[in-house]
Structures are given as structure tokens and as C-alpha cells.
């Protein structure tokens, strides 16, 4: 008996250890996933266009939210979802003014390294300065970058970037035991980069469909041991199925097998948030899209995204038992009061780059006799858009000299880049009379687009305008006495106006195109009285239009516009043309030439929402009347007959 007792002891002990091990494995594990996205070089809480601090955005403030969110959780991971390197004068400073040198750490990565980011994804705007700059900048990141759907053009099947990573991490479960998990992280970017940045990417890389790529690679990640899969997709949420090579595919990604968490961006929207309350498959309370936890934290560092996961090990595999997605803002949207202070390490870490940027943007180009503002650019001809149009026309006249196209009529397409919308009530050009500096040029033309001249017929010019005015709602002449004029979901940078022609917009007609570029009302024509030099436009005549690479290569899905229509492919930036134009002027007196207007609708008040900052300019805008200052940065206005 003594021998038998001694022989059982090791077995009992082993069984006890197995039980304890099983208990440790079965204990709940909580993991917090944190996300930033679309920072657009707003690293500090500073508005370079207004040359003043800001409390409503900036990664410096998001950093304080990150610190607090980490302190609340035993286990956390931090990811960035791209569109980091471009978007304001600090981005231009590092790419164009004092280009990043080999071996120099980009200020964005000085700060993301400081935040100890776990992994990051590329956004479409990260390609704006070209692949050599992008790769040089990425070399300073002390964390992995992922992208699965950009491939080497010369090497079929070879990824241009690391498609995914498996992060081996040790976490603490709710029983206090240590658990090792492999977190699979994969990234995607809209395939439209090949259109939007054609001059930087063509012949170098190709972009594949996001969903097809995900279906191919997700099982591979699981096979290689991923316990959990996080998809960082620089894509938005579209209610409708976009088809192959679609830009916004969050809904399709959420329905793929094997996705445990979905980190979104690109659209500068907020999920979970009220804009998605009527979307199919969306649970706003928990932040789910077809059962998959998802988050999209706005833009410019104005929100931090959080996904809290509860995990358990079931049959040897970690499973998500519960989840909750949420957003934390840096500022109270109603009171406009800051909710968090900036991380004090940020301004000291990139002090030299910030100072150099300020010195550059403060350099004077010319002087303006009048203020320049864009508060009403979507409802009436506008001085800020007019300045850009004038500059582009001056550039176009110069570059066509001596070419086969010199005798063609020349038009200029420009749009209000800063017109509120999803960017908030401070997102307007607002330049006081006085010195016009480089910062103001960047305010007038935000993007590093390059100039293109396209050749079109008069009929195609008309269709261009029909697409642009799809941003305006249809007004029912027999309907309510007050009706909203501007579609809040439209993108102001697609509200092109064409200088060189005159026209009126009949908003009682349905939009000929929807905002995605589909022809939906074949018999409708909102553009009325379209004329050139006082005569009805000849729809068979040829015109040259000065525009940018985004529009010329198909951006915005405007009818008839693609790379084949380009006749002058300039490498010069549109805003460089604006700076050069202003530099030739002894002074400017910005005013719109009134070449277009929205036709009044008898008996109907046409209402619209814009920034309350426009109130101070109403004496200059007799066609606009204030209805109400909402007190939150927005105001209600009326377009007078």
C-alpha cells in the first residue's frame, strides 16, 4: 500500500497542475484596442493656416486620451490607420520645403515612436509625395507597417509592403495569469490610389481589390498561428455594395470570416456615431457592423477610437465573447471646450520642425485689400475659389503658348476645399485683409495636387458642371416654404465651378448625377444658360480646362474625365501656381466675378448651414441672410433671391 500510495502522488500532482493550467486558460482576458487615423500631420494642437493653437484637434491631445485609456486597462494595443504624412504645412515642410534627409527621423515617427504604437497601416494620402519619400519616412518608424493590397508592378505577386504581421504579446487575464497571444494585423488602402496618385505610382506598383486580397490572406494568417485578427483598413462605411475595386468596403470586410476587430478611416467620419443610425447591419450601441466590432475615430486626432474585447479560450482557441466599440473626443462638440490637455512631450520633441514650418508659412507673398473666406462657397460665387481660378488661368495661358492647343478657349475648374462639412465648423478659409503669406496659400489650396490641362467638348463641359451641382438638394417649388439647399453628405472638394463660362443652376430639377457619379436622371438638366463669351456654348467645340491630377484622372467619378483626356501633364503643384500668381501682384482685392448663381425659387426660402464665423462677413454678402447662430460653431443661413 505504501508503494501504491507513493506511485499515485506524482499522478495526483500532475492532474492538479493540469487542472490549474486549464483554469488559467479558461480565465477571461480583456484586451483594449486603441486607434488613431487620418491625423494628416496635425501632430500638434496647432492650426498652421490660422497660425494659432487649437483645442479641437491634434495628436498631442489624442496622446493624453491614449495615456488615460491605457491606464484603465491591463492589456492594450495601439494602432494608426494612415493618412499621417500629408495634410498641412508641416507635412509639406518635411516633403517639399526642407525635404527629409536619408537617416533623418520624420517628426510623425518621432511622436508615434514616443507613443509606442504597435503597428500601422498606410492611407491613400501617404502616397502623395511619392514612393521614395514614403519609404524614407517609414524607415524612421520603430514599429511595423502593413499593407496587403499594393503590389510591385515589375514583380507579379510580390507585395510592395509587408502585408501583415503577427504580434507576439504577453497579456494578463482576469485571474492574474500570463497568457501569450499572437495578434494578426493586416492593412488595406483604397485601390483608387492608382488613379489619385497616378504620376507617383504608375509603372511602380499596382493596387488590388481589398476584399479579394482579404479573402486570400486571412486564412493564411490563421494558419500561421494568429489567435486574433485585427484588420486596419483605410476605408469607409458605404451603405451600398460597391463592387470590385470599391473604395469604401467596411461593410464587406465586416462580413468576412476570421475578422475579430475592424479599424476604419479614410472617410473622416465617426463610428459608432449618429451618421450610421439607419445603416443595415449596424449596432450603434455596441459599435458592430454585421456582428464585427468596428471603430472610426474622425480625423486630425480629434477622437481616439477604442474597441474593448472580452476573450476566452474555447477548445484551445481564443474567441471573442463580447465587445464594445466607442470614441473619446478631445473637445466637447456642444460647448467647444477642451476635454483633455496636450501631451507636453509633443511640442518639445518636434520643436525644430514646428519652428521651421512657422518661419516658412509666415513669409509674405503679397497683400490683400479685402478678407478672403469660404463660408458661402457652396451657394454663391466665392472669392477664395476665384483666387485659385485666376491663378490657374494665368498658369494655363502661359503653358499653352506655342502648343497645338494655344487657340482653344481656356477654362479653370476649382472647388472649395475648406467648407465645413464633416471637418467641422472651423474648417473654412478665413483670411483677414492685410499680408497674404505662404500659410494663406496653403489655406486656399490644401492638397499637394499637380496641374493638368484636359481637352473636352462643350457637351462634356456641361456634364462636368451637372456632376458638380449634384451636391445641391432638389427644391420642390410646391413644397414647404423653407427647404435645405446643400446635401450635408456631399464633399465640397467635388463642388467644382468652371471659370470662363457663365451659367445658372436650376435646383428645382432633380440632380442628373448622384454624388457617386452615376447618371440617375437622364432627362434632367440643372445647368441652364451655359454660355461662353456671351454666346450659348457650342457643345461640339473644344475647350481646355485647367484642373488638378485628382480630377483629371477620374477622382470624384466625373463623367468623361480620365487620364486619356490630359493634353498637358504638368508636374507643378496647383498651390505653387497660386503662390506664383499672388507673387506677381502688387496687391489683390479678392472678389468673385459672379459667373454662376443658383436660380431663386419663387416662394421658397433656400436654407443652408455654414460656420458661424461667416456672420462677420454678411455685410459683404447681400445675397445671404443669417437665420440663427446655433452657438456651437454652426449657423443657419438663407440664400436671398
Q: Tell me about the biggest sheet? A: 8 strands, mixed
**Which homologous superfamily in CATH is the superfamily of the largest domain?**
Metallo-dependent phosphatases
Low-confidence stretches: 1-24
**Mean pLDDT over the residues:** 92
Compile the SSE list and pairings.
Layout (H helix, E strand, L loop, with lengths): L1 H25 L2 E8 L9 E2 L4 E2 L5 H13 L4 E5 L8 H9 L9 H8 L4 E3 L9 H8 L6 E2 L3 E3 L11 E9 L5 E11 L4 H4 L1 H4 L3 E3 L2 H14 L4 E6 L16 H5 L6 E3 L6 E2 L10 E2 L4 E2 L2 E6 L5 E12 L2 E13 L15 H5 L1 H11 L2 E5 L3 E2 L9 H18 L9 E5 L15 E2 L2 E4 H7 L5 E8 H11 L13 E3 L12 E3 L2 E4 L21 E6 L2 E2 L5 E7 H4 L13 E8 H10 L12 E3 L6 E7 L12 E6 L4 E6 L2
Parallel strand pairs: 1-4, 4-5, 5-6, 9-11, 11-12, 12-16, 21-30, 25-33, 27-32
Antiparallel strand pairs: 1-17, 2-3, 7-10, 8-9, 13-16, 14-15, 15-16, 17-18, 19-23, 20-22, 21-26, 24-30, 24-31, 27-28, 28-29, 33-35, 34-35
Helix pairs in contact: 3-11, 12-16, 13-16
Task: Please outline what is shown here.
With 641 residues, this protein is an alpha/beta fold. 24% of the residues lie in helices and 27% in strands. A hairpin with a 2-residue loop joins strand 15 and strand 16 (292-297).
What would your notes on this structure say?
The structure is a single chain. The chain has 641 residues and is α/β, with parallel strands linked by helices. It has 2 domains: 41-354, Purple Acid Phosphatase, chain A, domain 2 (4-Layer Sandwich); 363-639, 5'-nucleotidase,  domain 2 (Alpha-Beta Complex). Strands 8, 9, 11, 12, 13, 14, 15 and 16 form an 8-stranded mixed beta sheet that branches. Strands 6-5-4-1-17-18 form a 6-stranded mixed beta sheet. Helix 3 (89-97) packs across helix 11 and helix 13 packs across helix 16. Mean pLDDT is 92; it is low at 1-24.
Amino acid at each position: 500500500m505504501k508503494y501504491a500510495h507513493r506511485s499515485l502522488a506524482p499522478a495526483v500532482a500532475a492532474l492538479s497542475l493540469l487542472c490549474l493550467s486549464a483554469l488559467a486558460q479558461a480565465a477571461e482576458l480583456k484586451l483594449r484596442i486603441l486607434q488613431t487615423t487620418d491625423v494628416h500631420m496635425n501632430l500638434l494642437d496647432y492650426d498652421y493656416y490660422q497660425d494659432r493653437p487649437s483645442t479641437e484637434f491634434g495628436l498631442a491631445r489624442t496622446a493624453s486620451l491614449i495615456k488615460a485609456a491605457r491606464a484603465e486597462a491591463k492589456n492594450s494595443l495601439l494602432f494608426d490607420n494612415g493618412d499621417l504624412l500629408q495634410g498641412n504645412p508641416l507635412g509639406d515642410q518635411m516633403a517639399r520645403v526642407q525635404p527629409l534627409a536619408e537617416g533623418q527621423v520624420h517628426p510623425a515617427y518621432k511622436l508615434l515612436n514616443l507613443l509606442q504604437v504597435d503597428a500601422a497601416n498606410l492611407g491613400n494620402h501617404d502616397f502623395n509625395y511619392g514612393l521614395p519619400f514614403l519609404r524614407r519616412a517609414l524607415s524612421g518608424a520603430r514599429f511595423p507597417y502593413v499593407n496587403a493590397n499594393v503590389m510591385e508592378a515589375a514583380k507579379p505577386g510580390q507585395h510592395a509592403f509587408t502585408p501583415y504581421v503577427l504580434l507576439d504579446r504577453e497579456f494578463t487575464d482576469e485571474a492574474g495569469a500570463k497568457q501569450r497571444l499572437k495578434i494578426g494585423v493586416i492593412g488595406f488602402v483604397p485601390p483608387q490610389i492608382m488613379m489619385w496618385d497616378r504620376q507617383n505610382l504608375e509603372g511602380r506598383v499596382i493596387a488590388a481589390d481589398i476584399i479579394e486580397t482579404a479573402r486570400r490572406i486571412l486564412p493564411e494568417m490563421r494558419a500561421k498561428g494568429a489567435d486574433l485578427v485585427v484588420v486596419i483598413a483605410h476605408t469607409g462605411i458605404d451603405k451600398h455594395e460597391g463592387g470590385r475595386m470599391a473604395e469604401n468596403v467596411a461593410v464587406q470586410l465586416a462580413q468576412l470570416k476570421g475578422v475579430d476587430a475592424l479599424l476604419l478611416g479614410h472617410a473622416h467620419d465617426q463610428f459608432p456615431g449618429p451618421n450610421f443610425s439607419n445603416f443595415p447591419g449596424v449596432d450603434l450601441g455596441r459599435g458592430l457592423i454585421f456582428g464585427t466590432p468596428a471603430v472610426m475615430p474622425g480625423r486630425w486626432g480629434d477622437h481616439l477610437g477604442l474597441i474593448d474585447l472580452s476573450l476566452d479560450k474555447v477548445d484551445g482557441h481564443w474567441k471573442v465573447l463580447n465587445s464594445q466599440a466607442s470614441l473619446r473626443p478631445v473637445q466637447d462638440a456642444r460647448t467647444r471646450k477642451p476635454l483633455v490637455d496636450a501631451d507636453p512631450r509633443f511640442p518639445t520633441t518636434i520643436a525644430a520642425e514646428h519652428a521651421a514650418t512657422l518661419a516658412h508659412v509666415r513669409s509674405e507673398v503679397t497683400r490683400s485689400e479685402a478678407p478672403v473666406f469660404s463660408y458661402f462657397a457652396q451657394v454663391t460665387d466665392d472669392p477664395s475659389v476665384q483666387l485659385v481660378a485666376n491663378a490657374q488661368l494665368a498658369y494655363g495661358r502661359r503653358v499653352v503658348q506655342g502648343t497645338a492647343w494655344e487657340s482653344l478657349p481656356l477654362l479653370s475648374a476649382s472647388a472649395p476645399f475648406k467648407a465645413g462639412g464633416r471637418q467641422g465648423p472651423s474648417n473654412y478659409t478665413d483670411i483677414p485683409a492685410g499680408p497674404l503669406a505662404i500659410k494663406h496659400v496653403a489655406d486656399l489650396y490644401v492638397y499637394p495636387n499637380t496641374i493638368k490641362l484636359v481637352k473636352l467638348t462643350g457637351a462634356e463641359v456641361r456634364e462636368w458642371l451637372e456632376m458638380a451641382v449634384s451636391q445641391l438638394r432638389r427644391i420642390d417649388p410646391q413644397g414647404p416654404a423653407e427647404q435645405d439647399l446643400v446635401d450635408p453628405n456631399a464633399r465640397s472638394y467635388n463642388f467644382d465651378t468652371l471659370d470662363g463660362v457663365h451659367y445658372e443652376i436650376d435646383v428645382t430639377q432633380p440632380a442628373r448625377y448622384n454624388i457617386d457619379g452615376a447618371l440617375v436622371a437622364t432627362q434632367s438638366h440643372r445647368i441652364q444658360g451655359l454660355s461662353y463669351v456671351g454666346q450659348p456654348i457650342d457643345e461640339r467645340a473644344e475647350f481646355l480646362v485647367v484642373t488638378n491630377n485628382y480630377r483629371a484622372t477620374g477622382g470624384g467619378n466625373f463623367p468623361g474625365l480620365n487620364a486619356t483626356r490630359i493634353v498637358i501633364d504638368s508636374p507643378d503643384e496647383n498651390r505653387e501656381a497660386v503662390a506664383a500668381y499672388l507673387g506677381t501682384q502688387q496687391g489683390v482685392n479678392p472678389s468673385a466675378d459672379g459667373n454662376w448663381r443658383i436660380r431663386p425659387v419663387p416662394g421658397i426660402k433656400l436654407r443652408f448651414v455654414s460656420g458661424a464665423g461667416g456672420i462677420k462677413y454678411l455685410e459683404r454678402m447681400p445675397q445671404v441672410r443669417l437665420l440663427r447662430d446655433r452657438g456651437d460653431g454652426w449657423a443657419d443661413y438663407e440664400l436671398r433671391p
